[in-house]
Amino acid sequence: MNLVTFGCSWMFGVGTNYTPGMTKIEYKKDKDSSDRKFGDQYAFRKHLCDMWNCTNTDFSEMGSSNEKQFRFAETYFGKLDPEEYENTIVLWAITVTTRTEVYYKETGKYVNVLFGNGWGTDTQMERAKFDTRWHLEHHYDHDEKVKQLMFKMRFWNRFFDAAGIQNYWLDTFNHHNYTKPVKNMLFNKRPGRDLLSLKCADLGFSPKADGYHVSQFSNTDSTRIQHLQEKGWVNPYSQHPTREYHKWIAEQIDAEICTKI
């Protein structure tokens, strides 16, 4: 069985090089030199492969937008012949809406664009000639983004059904309010179905009102991520899940999927 995974840094396993007591210099050195090695060893997708006896074809990336993952999926499945779909299971983690990607003709490559606090509008302009302020003012609307996500997920469900592919969806670190049901959405009966809220609830932390976690440091960021950082479930340098958190996520997904089979 081949587990095909889509998502952002949480699926990839960014930050799993971190161990308690590690200095920021030590963390940064390991992270920059061998991110993929640690993710392939400690991310929850790896734990699931071990539990299910699967190989893993992973398309997740740090800072990836949903648009990028849809593009990767279209390219991957568009290239395969139908018989190559056999023995495939798809786990797709939806990330924040405050990201996109643009094609930059000068380099001939797609460039991630993040609307959050971490990269800055000047950096976006330098890397992709993309005016973040203008886009946010005139083109970005969270509710519209979520609505289009819902339509795309429902479309892909129909594709996977027709192809005979078992598939599941996750909200990564924000619970999105889809206005129509999305089949195969994990933890759908939970008031906060995303992986961040699930762990907070497990620890007994359920804020009545909470901000949107944009996955970049910000004074207005979600109290949920701050709580997990205080409790040691995400590392203090990038706010990504620890190795133990990844193991916990895999156990929750395995138990949830077993109830659906």
Write up this protein.
By secondary structure, the chain is an alpha/beta fold. The chain has helices at 9-12, 24-42, 44-52, 66-79, 121-128, 132-138, 142-163, 195-202, 223-230, 243-258, and strands at 2-6, 55-58, 88-94, 99-104, 109-114, 166-171. The protein has a four-stranded parallel β-sheet, with helices on both faces. A hairpin with a 4-residue loop joins β4 and β5. α2 (24-42) packs parallel to α3 and α8 crosses α9 (223-230). The two termini are 16 Å apart. The mean pLDDT is 90.
List the defining traits of the structure above.
alpha/beta; 10 helices; globular; two-stranded antiparallel sheet
For the CA atoms, what is the radius of gyration? 18 Å
* Structural classification: alpha/beta
Poorly predicted sequence stretches spanning 5 or more consecutive residues: none
Terminal CA distance reads: 16 Å
Q: How many DSSP E strands?
A: 6
Question: Quick check: average pLDDT?
Answer: 90
- Percentage of residues in helical conformation: 40-55%
| Binned strand content | 5-15%
Give, in order, the helices and strands: EHHHEHEEEHHHEHHH
Strand arrangement in the largest pleated sheet? 2-1-3-6
H/I helix tally: 10
Provide a compact summary of the structure.
The protein is α/β, with parallel strands linked by helices. Helix content is 44%, strand content 13%.
